[in-house]
Automatic annotation (TrEMBL):
Protein name: Purple acid phosphatase
Subunit text: Homodimer.
Species, as recorded: Pyrus ussuriensis x Pyrus communis
Source organism phylogeny: Eukaryota, Viridiplantae, Streptophyta, Embryophyta, Tracheophyta
A cellular component term, taken from the record's GO annotations: extracellular region
Known catalytic reactions: a phosphate monoester + H2O = an alcohol + phosphate
GO terms, molecular function: acid phosphatase activity; metal ion binding
């Protein structure tokens, strides 16, 4: 059945819309969803509502939703993630208890098997796969700081799966026995121009607050087939190792000898999220709150250990960047907190990955990374300009359609843009760092009087070694300035509210993007637009830009 823009509307509006289409009339104004073909749009800011919970409160240790409910080596924190193609997924879980204190002894990963039993029928399981296990430590060489060692983390890859098919599974060690309850997941549809998952949830900067629980409740009610988490997972690094937390670590703990973390927050998060991610695949890219420096300058240990990534399957040598297909969409997860220079491994991998994409099979190309290139909020303003200068031309030359970012704790949708210029063939940038975390909501904009940051304060030491690349604009309405004095033309819509987004790709050229706010009912829409690809119009433009860049 051919896609109709009426199909996403409520029943009454959809009938009215279809009648209008049949008789050749225009759609009623209240029924018509805007499209990127109508753009560029006049910039719009929805004023911040001070009655909202701009500051979020973490779930405490004694909340029943974060308690360990299993015994012995029974699995917990169970999750599903995708491999590079539809015919394979990863199942991950943890067995055994973490330890925190002065005298910790890591568990032996070899003491428990990593087994998944699965089938298309709920019972009996007709297939079995084994995987690998590990533990990680978070160690601090300073007196008074507590060390941490994780439970045994298991990752098992299932292969040979059918597309768009429900599988039932149990994970654990059947020899103890210590097996989980029966869970289920659905595989992605086969890659093709008319084959897409129905709904993809997108969220960033999630944490584990009461606002987070609202976000996940609303997100779950939208019945997603896949969840993208665009960095900043648990915010365990807002805590000291003794469990004392703060909304602002540097403000509350300025004399800490190292940026501490309270690793049990990762376990709390995994327990809370299990009801969703044990059945809906979740794909994660790193954010700055996953750095978590420890002894011997080790970083990202929790992030790299707890999640399974299709790195090897997609030709990557790193957990920081990888790619995968979900039906006719090719997703590229890019690492901002590792080397992104043109001479680095990631850039060379990205070039090869983009060159291998067949747009007749995966027409949609979606890229994600944590810090946004085009955010107009004061928080993190132009922080990632060095990354943009290294990578933007490459992504544009291959026709990336949509970019998802987090980091800024608010929502913003751009007009199509390239190199700070409105461009009908540039990506739509969507900042969704509004998942509900403990840090304050971003409410001020760099174009407001008094809120344009001093340029030299904008670099992040963890992004490109803290290099400064954000010079004053050289053309346009902000020429000679570091900030605009009004909402920039490239910013189509912005609002400071917690929430999440849903992407529904309809066919090879149309996709519906909807943003939902936490303070609304489940079905009320905060922002909505059809993102429309124009491959025939843009193909020559991409080639020309690439040719000029090579001169």
């Amino acid at each position: 059945m051919a896609f109709s823009p009426c199909s996403s509307l409520p029943a009454v509006a959809a009938i009215t819309c279809l009648i209008a289409v049949v008789v050749g009339c225009y759609w009623p104004v209240e029924a018509r969803i805007p499209t990127t073909l109508d753009g560029p749009f006049e910039p719009l800011t929805v004023a911040f509502d001070p009655s909202l919970r701009g500051n979020a409160v973490d779930l405490p240790d004694d909340d029943h939703r974060v308690h360990r409910r299993v015994k012995g080596f029974e699995p917990e924190q169970i999750s599903v993630s995708l491999s590079a193609e539809y015919d394979s997924v990863w199942i991950s879980w943890i067995t055994g208890e973490y330890q925190i204190g002065d005298n910790i002894k890591p568990l032996d990963p070899k003491s428990v098997q990593s087994i998944v039993q699965y089938a298309e029928l709920r019972y009996p399981p007709t297939n079995e796969a084994s995987g690998y296990s590990l533990v990680y430590n978070q160690l601090y060489p300073f007196e008074g700081l507590q060390n941490y060692t994780s439970g045994i983390i298991h990752h098992v890859r299932l292969t040979g799966l059918k597309p768009n098919t429900v599988y039932f599974y149990q994970c654990g060690d059947p020899s103890i026995p210590a097996m989980s309850e029966i869970h289920h997941f659905r595989t992605m549809p086969v890659s093709g121009p008319r084959s897409y998952p129905e709904r993809i949830a997108v969220v960033g900067d999630l944490g584990l607050t009461y606002n987070t629980t609202t976000t996940i409740s609303h997100l779950t009610s939208n019945n997603p087939d896949l969840v993208l988490l665009i960095g900043d997972v648990t915010y365990a690094n807002l805590y000291l190792t003794n469990g004392t937390g703060s909304d602002c670590y540097s403000c509350s703990f300025p004399n800490s000898p190292i940026h501490e973390t309270y690793q049990p927050r990762w376990d709390y998060w995994g327990r809370y999220m299990q009801s969703l991610v044990s059945k809906v695949p979740i794909m994660v890219v790193e954010g700055n709150h996953e750095i978590e420096e420890q002894a011997e300058n080790k970083t990202f240990e929790a992030y790299s250990s707890r999640f399974a990534f299709p790195s090897e399957e997609s030709g990557s040598s790193s957990t920081f960047y990888y790619s995968f297909n979900a039906g006719g969409i090719h997703f590229i997860m890019i690492g901002a907190y590792t080397d992104f220079s043109k001479s680095g491994k990631q850039y060379k991998w990205l070039e090869q990955d983009l060159a291998n994409v067949d747009r007749s099979i995966t027409p949609w190309l979606v890229a994600t990374w944590h810090p946004p290139w085009y955010s107009t909020y004061e928080a993190h303003y132009r922080e990632a300009d060095c990354m943009r200068m290294e990578m933007e031309e490459l992504l544009y030359s291959y026709g990336v359609d949509i970019v998802f970012n987090g980091h800024v704790h608010a929502y913003e949708r751009s007009n199509r843009i390239y190199d700070y210029n409105l461009d009908p063939c540039g990506p739509v940038y969507l900042t969704v760092g509004d998942g509900g975390n403990r840090e304050k909501m971003a409410v001020h904009h760099a174009d407001e009087p008094g809120y344009c940051p001093e340029p030299l304060t904008t670099p992040d030491e963890h992004l490109g070694a803290g290099a400064f690349c954000a010079d004053n604009f050289t053309s346009g309405p902000a020429a000679g300035k570091f900030c605009w004095d009004r909402q920039p033309d490239y910013s189509a819509f912005r609002e400071s509210s917690f929430g999440h987004g849903i992407l529904e790709v309809k066919n090879e050229t149309w996709a519906l993007w909807t943003w939902y706010r936490n303070q609304d009912s489940d079905d009320k829409i905060g922002d909505q637009i059809y993102i429309v690809r124009q491959p025939d119009k843009c193909r020559f433009r991409y080639m020309l830009k690439s040719w000029i860049a090579d001169l």
